[in-house]
Specification:
mainly alpha; flat; 71 residues
Length: 71
């Protein structure tokens, strides 16, 4: 509602909702690992997952951009 009241673009609101939905699975897994006594593993998962996504996403898009336009 706040995004609609501030007249934010619908694409930004959609990406925000998508990112929240993407994090819910990680949250459930991390809470379950912590309850079983693997808190360090859960913390590592919190940090490593997004870092991996950024590196793979940027790497793949950069590679495809270089392949399409090798200037």
């Amino acid at each position: 509602m706040l995004g609609l009241m501030l007249d934010l673009p619908k694409s930004l609101l959609g990406l925000t909702l998508l990112s929240w939905g993407n994090c819910m699975g990680d949250l459930n897994a991390d809470v379950a690992m912590t309850k079983k006594g693997f808190g360090e593993m859960a913390l590592t998962g919190c940090m490593a997952g997004p870092v991996f996504n950024v590196f793979v996403g940027l790497g793949a898009s950069t590679f495809l951009g270089l392949v399409k336009n090798p200037d």
